[in-house]
């Protein structure tokens, strides 16, 4: 996973300026900021809000609405576990809850060793293979506790 470069307000401002001419620039700016820094830093929100002439609260609302815009840097690996209906109906919530408890983290957090970030995702189009997950952009179906443990161990070792 790409960690991005360290936060730099001047660079963020350049990115924002480069997208201001677009129609509906908010999401392209957020994607570009994430691509550059690996996440959307809290400090970017007022810069984007000011540039788009919207309130900081409004911009904060946009950032937090989309799970794609992580507000903390990711770990070396990212596991996204599906929380949509088909996966829920086959036990994904309990599976995820137990896994998060085992790692002693919450949704969106990273293990203290920086190895693994666990995030929710809402339908991967793998409903027939529920519960589903995405590990470092590799889709996987029929995920169970054993597979999650393998992922955690693999993440620690790479
Ligand atoms: S609901 Fe999980 S992949 Fe569709």
UniProtKB/TrEMBL annotation:
Pfam families: 2Fe-2S_thioredx. Its cofactor is [2Fe-2S] cluster. NCBIfam families: PRK05988.1. Belongs to the complex I 24 kDa subunit family. This is Formate dehydrogenase subunit gamma. [2Fe-2S] cluster binds at residues 82, 87, 123, 127. Binds 1 [2Fe-2S] cluster. InterPro entries: NADP_DH_HndA-like (IPR028431), NuoE-like (IPR002023), NuoE_N (IPR041921), Thioredoxin-like_sf (IPR036249). It comes from the Bacteria. PANTHER family: BIFURCATING [FEFE] HYDROGENASE GAMMA SUBUNIT, NADH-QUINONE OXIDOREDUCTASE, E SUBUNIT.
């Amino acid at each position: 996973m790409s960690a991005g470069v360290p936060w730099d307000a001047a660079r963020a401002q350049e990115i924002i300026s480069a997208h201001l001419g677009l129609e509906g620039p908010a999401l392209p700016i957020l994607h570009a900021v994430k691509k550059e820094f690996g996440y959307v830093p809290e400090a970017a929100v007022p810069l984007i809000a000011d540039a788009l002439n919207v309130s900081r609260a409004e911009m904060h609302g946009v950032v937090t609405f989309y799970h794609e815009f992580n507000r903390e840097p990711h770990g070396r690996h990212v596991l996204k576990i599906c929380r949509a209906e088909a996966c829920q109906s086959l036990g994904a919530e309990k599976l995820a809850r137990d896994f998060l408890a085992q790692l002693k983290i919450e949704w969106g957090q990273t293990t203290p060793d920086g190895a693994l970030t666990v995030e929710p995702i809402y339908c991967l189009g793998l409903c027939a293979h529920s519960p589903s997950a995405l590990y470092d952009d590799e889709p996987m179906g029929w995920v169970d506790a054993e597979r999650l443990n393998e992922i955690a161990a693999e993440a620690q070792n790479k």
